[in-house]
Amino acid sequence: MSDVLGAAIISGSIYALISLGFALGFRVSGVFNLAYGGLLVAAGYANYAFAVLLGLPTWLSIPISILLISGIGFAIEGYGVPFAKKVGLTSLDIMVLTWLLLVVMQDLVIIIFSSTSIYMGSQDVTTGLTFLGTHITSIQFAIMGLTFAGASVLFVISRFTASGREVTAVGDNVALATICGINVKRVIALNAVAASLLAAGAGVLLTYEDRLEPTLGMRFSIIAIVATLVGIRLGPGGAVLGAYAFGLLESVVLYLVDPGLRDSVVYFCLLAAVTVTYRRKLISDVG
Q1: Three-state DSSP class for 210?
Q2: Domain ranges in the chain?
Q3: Residue 25 contacts by C-beta under 8 Å, 6 or more apart in sequence?
Q4: Exposure pattern of 61-75 as b/e (b: 16+ CB <10 Å)?
Q5: How many CB atoms are located within 10 Å of the residue 111 CB?
Q6: Which residue ranges in the chain fall short of pLDDT 50?
Q7: What is the number of alpha carbons within 13 Å of residue 153 lying toward its C-beta?
Q8: For residues 279 and 281, what is the distance between their CA atoms, to the nearest angstrom?
Q9: CATH 1.10.3470: does it fit domain 2-286?
Q10: For 79-92, what is each residue's pLDDT tens digit?
Q11: I want to staple 66 with a disulfide (CB 3.0 to 4.6 A). Which of 45, 200, 260, 262 is the partner?
Q12: HSE on the CB side for 162, CA within 13 Å?
């Protein structure tokens, strides 16, 4: 059982880091932007291209990759999504468009890198510590630390700052926020910057912890949707709790049931999360 808990903490931290940016974008736009999965994959492969293929030092390839890919994410979240809503597209329409962007980004990675999977971490996994029966490497500790730090910062900002209250106001009602004098465009832009940086950063870090493949963008987007819906009432920070819950369930399946059911867990959790959320909304509307 200790192996299950240790693995759940590690995988949950990774999923939480991925989900933070996704949930942050959803909090303002109300749209499940599936393109974040494509950004994650693109950032990982961009860092691989700069560091391995072009020979740039890691300290230079990582920030270049994050800034480059987060710039694309900012254009999508900060300008593309608001424009699509302005011309009358529904949230479902926009989600389909972001899914197409995800497919395009994954296909470009496949074309450029010939479907090559990448791993940039150290082959020496003996360093680190043993926690709850599971060996945790230094990069896993870094991911866990960044996850908790990111969640804590978002919690403090959302609860105790004027900027956090503005984000909440825009997410709840854009028209009312505008009437109250909030600079909606600025809030959307800043939120898009933060969400895109988190997504790109998660993609780069992931390549140092596990093997990344071009087609994993959709899987990570679905996990982010599940995590966001599970913690939807708590805002972006709630996605962290949702991610750890998913990580625990996945670890139980991997260690105690059948590893072959791993992908089935993803889609089952998506169906369950959407069903419960829809039921809550239906009850709220009737009430």
Answers
A1: coil
A2: 2-286
A3: 31, 33, 36, 77, 191, 192, 195
A4: bbeebbeebbebbbe
A5: 10
A6: 282, 286-287
A7: 12
A8: 5
A9: yes
A10: 999 999 989 999 88
A11: 200
A12: 3
